[in-house]
């Protein structure tokens, strides 16, 4: 496939979310999550793990101020390879850095979410808080643009000495993403300038030129962020830096070995995991399998897809396609979760998808959405949007409690609370959502994704509007001679009724390309009579229905029936053999103890059962629940652990499923997605 961009994103400046379901989610982010996270970033949430994020910025800012005003202040010295060396007496000991090395990124994700919210809902009070936060962050910036509080506070002479582990480039990436969103919302450039200055500082130290470090990020994200910074500023230096990171990765001798000479003389085989973890085992265009830390991987692949489009690189695009298929065909949970093992928060081997020890980090699914959106721009194939939808309605929605103040980092498919409490192999699996995390990457990531959800609905070319997600939205498209206004109403995720109204002030031909979801066997389109008009063409291609015509004032209805689907997995997935999962439309369902009693493992689906739906209230949410007759295996207990096999006895039981995203909103209890049949 040719590497060029086929369609482009339609941003929040042109899309308004009007959807009842999603407006409620966005309002939750605006009214609850953002204020709550601001409190968390300032360590003011009682009984929650402290963040120290804003503390660290303040500490770094105060060090700066003190150094500037101290008598006899001496400028730092820069060594020939660009390291900044502070004279010993200038070090300040009393302001300390706390938390993870990448704590700065929590602010960046928060301000990104604030930017998306302000773009849709101007709010002077929120903007004032954000401006104040930006002042604090910028006060930490060094004269040469460096902006990472871990080294500013601890020892700036050691900056850029451990790109593998120390997240300076990860923090740069997030800072850029946050700054761009805030700039787009408010037009204010203070944070954008700070991000540019930090990127310039990085480029002054890392790059192809002699005397610079030939390194790349240990945790990817700077790649896609720099592509965005290039798009916003038009400055080629940012494109070049992002591309450099991509091209340099995986080259031998391994850059990370030069930083960690203790590894360099070790056998490469013995070190395999070390390079795989960072996706640095091979030059990216030679990679065929998704390996290592799952968030890192999909952030890298998203950046690769960006650059495949930016520089029309076919090999890069093909690699992205291969890596995508590897994930989706072999390493993806039915919920959309990726990264099966908590060891390294990583992909496991193909088809290894355990339910009760699953890692499936929320951030990794968010990364899959970034990857999907970029693949859609390169290649409008519904297989990408299908996964985007799966991630969104299951892991993303489930990552946050219905209250907006509790979160999942790990998203298991089977939970027995006793095991979480007593089995250290399952310690990472929490049976209830947490208020905050010491490593709090997921909650602000959810906030930035949900608040920007409108920008994932469409992509476009000059003459085609692709509808990837069915969500109530209003968008306008500039045609050659006028404007088309598109209004979508949708019953998703509860029913598949979609109405699309098109109003054009000119007579011009263009195409609406409507995704046909993978879970829909047959859809029904009304309102367009192509037989009656030779100028209306309909064609199904790549999972989209293309409708090309001169649009005036048209209303079309599509019904995507949301039949209940009983799903089984490839038999190579050992953990789900003999089990099935229930799905309806984009929602994966699960059984919870609250509806089905304890010992969910004893329940069995009756293969001939008739599934029915009904409305159920879960906390603040009215959901469509699913019910069917099944069986409960009678307890076989003979006061012996083992005994001669007897045919199992069952009693009738009614099984009730709720949407996976709504689990764990009624206290602690068992949950399972896969049930015996
Ligand atoms: O390293 C930064 C973030 O913390 C990663 O993306 C998450 O997996 C967590 O380890
Ligand atoms: Zn995370």
Protein described:
The strands form 4 sheets. Strands 5, 16, 17, 18, 19, 20, 21, 22, 23 and 24 form a 10-stranded antiparallel β-sheet that branches. A 6-stranded mixed β-sheet has the order 1-6-7-11-14-13, with helices on one face. A 6-stranded antiparallel β-sheet has the order 2-8-9-10-15-12, with no helix packed on it. It is globular. 36% of the residues lie in helices and 18% in strands. The longest helix has 22 residues, at 20-41. The chain has 677 residues and is α+β, with helices and mostly antiparallel strands. Beta-L-arabinofuranose binds next to loops. Beta-L-arabinofuranose binds at residues 102, 219, 295, 345, 361, 363, 439, 441.
* Number of H- or I-type helical stretches: 19
Which word captures the global form?
Answer: globular
The pLDDT mean sits at 93
Q: How many E strands?
A: 24
* Percent in strands: 15-25%
Enumerate the spans where pLDDT stays under 50 for 5 or more consecutive residues.
80-94
Distance between the termini: 42 Å
Q: Kindly state the percentage of residues in helix.
A: 25-40%
Radius of gyration: 26 Å
Bound molecules: beta-L-arabinofuranose, zinc ion
**What is the structural class?**
alpha+beta
Strand count, sense and barrel status of the largest sheet are: 10 strands, antiparallel
